[in-house]
Amino acid sequence: MAVYKKPESESDFYHNFAEKQPQMSASEAFIESSRCLFCYDAPCITACPTHIDIPLFIKQIHTGNVEGSARTIFDSNWLGSACGKVCPTSVLCEGACVYNHENKKPIEIGRLQFYATQQVIEADKHLYGPGLPNGRKVAVVGAGPAGIACACELRLMGYEVDVFEAKDKPSGLTVHGTAPYKITNEQALNEMAYLQDQMGYVVRYNTPIETKGQIDDLESKYDAVFLGVGIGPTAELNVNGESSHRVIGAVEFVEELREKQHQMKVPDRVIVLGGGNTAMDAASESARMGAAHVVLAYRRGQEDMGAYAFEYDMAVRAGVRGLFHVAPIEIRDTDDGVAVTFIRTQHLNGKLEFITGSEFVMEADWVIKATGQSKMGSFFSLIDSLQLDTSRRVVVDPITFQTSNPKYFAGGDAVNGGAEVVNGAFDGKMAARGIDDWLNKK
Ligand code: SF4
């Protein structure tokens, strides 16, 4: 188990957040690519949500055609570089690699993918450009993975594209919500700049779309609108005392950490509430910021957590302690922190129940809530006839990504409720094609 010192400088920060998958050297990439069996009907392709031709790009690396390899990757996935870093490859492409059946290490597909795409990004080698102008305009709301993928694909087909982004940077959760040991701000933003330079879409930063007037304006000025708005801030716990300033949301915590890095001060005692991947990130990051006691408290069992097992293992290796079958019922400010009252839980007849009389108190300096994010319900209510499901996600056609209001298309977290960057990238690309089909039929 690692013990991290509180980072005092940028170099301390990068030491504590050392990259999980460092970039390969050319010789490492050559040797690793030589291991690929270039399988017929390669299961790694099927396991990739964007269906990148993995054996082809690996063969291109091996034969010295790195530019061709990057093109193979970007042809399927506009965020091919970020995905090489942040994809949960052990449960996607690498998890499907045939080497697993022989109990051998699978091909390091993610690292090879990042290697190939980084070569062209670093050399600023432009592989694409906008298509001939077709006279049509599309508005994209949100510059996250889905929005940017949609913008690139539309530009390729000759559309004029304006992207409206509430924050001051693109890439959505890739920069604002992903643990820094998965991808650095610089790596994520370099890919964004590389794409925008080539494809020439316009991004209007610090421009949230939040009024009916703005929606009407988009509808009158654009032929179609793509909604890549993601999901909202951390949801309420509905527990007494959660309004304490010592109780913070996991998404907001990760975002501030990425922004301030070593200048953010994380106290010694942290309780993280939740069992999803965001909870694992928040807990791991608290430990890497030098918090001496980080407890991950989840109301069900370890096996019930939504997080990938490897994410939990990584948190434990960073020094996090798991506490299962406990639910917070009250949070109280104390002289030097907060006291969280938990109650133990059990499964009874398929239901989660509190065990009467099992309450206990745990003290902490901070409580980080990672128990889900609110949906963008109030924003969606501005759009006429936009159908949402019972979880307040936008309902779309699974092929075209068109919503119940035909002028609107949607993808990414707003549709799936919160998945991976690669899913957003796939949705955005498919939605662009859906928009093109729809406008061509009109
Ligand atoms: Fe190469 Fe593994 Fe994919 Fe086969 S399954 S093509 S060995 S990466």
Q: How are the SSEs placed, and which strands pair?
A:
Elements: H1 10-16, H2 26-34, H3 43-47, H4 54-62, H5 66-76, H6 80-86, H7 93-96, H8 109-122, E1 137-141, H9 145-156, E2 160-164, H10 173-176, H11 185-199, E3 202-204, H12 212-221, E4 224-227, E5 247-249, H13 250-260, E6 269-273, H14 277-288, E7 293-298, H15 309-317, E8 320-324, E9 326-334, E10 337-348, E11 351-354, E12 360-364, E13 366-369, H16 377-380, E14 408-410, H17 413-416, H18 421-441
Parallel strand pairs: 1-2, 1-4, 2-3, 4-14, 5-13, 6-7, 6-13, 7-8
Antiparallel strand pairs: 9-10, 10-11, 10-12
Helix pairs in contact: 2-4, 4-5, 4-8, 5-8, 6-8, 9-11, 9-18, 13-14, 14-15
Bound molecules: iron/sulfur cluster.
What does this structure look like?
There is one protein chain. The protein has 442 residues and is α/β, with parallel strands linked by helices. The protein contains 18 helices and 14 strands. It is 38% helix and 17% strand. The strands form three sheets. The protein has a five-stranded parallel sheet with strand order 3-2-1-4-14, sandwiched between helices. A five-stranded parallel sheet has the order 5-13-6-7-8. Strands 9, 10, 11 and 12 form a four-stranded antiparallel sheet that branches. It binds iron/sulfur cluster (SF4). The site of iron/sulfur cluster has 14 residues, from helix 3 and helix 4.
The major β-sheet equals: 5 strands, parallel
Shape: globular
The residue-averaged pLDDT reads 94
Whole-number radius of gyration?
A: 23 Å
Strands of the biggest beta sheet: in what spatial order?
3-2-1-4-14
- Summed up, the helix count is 18
Structural class: alpha/beta
What proportion of the residues form beta strands (DSSP E)? Answer: 15-25%
| Poorly predicted segments | none
- Got a strand count? 14
Task: State the helicity in percent bands.
Answer: 25-40%
In this entry the ligands are: iron/sulfur cluster
Span from first to last CA? Answer: 61 Å
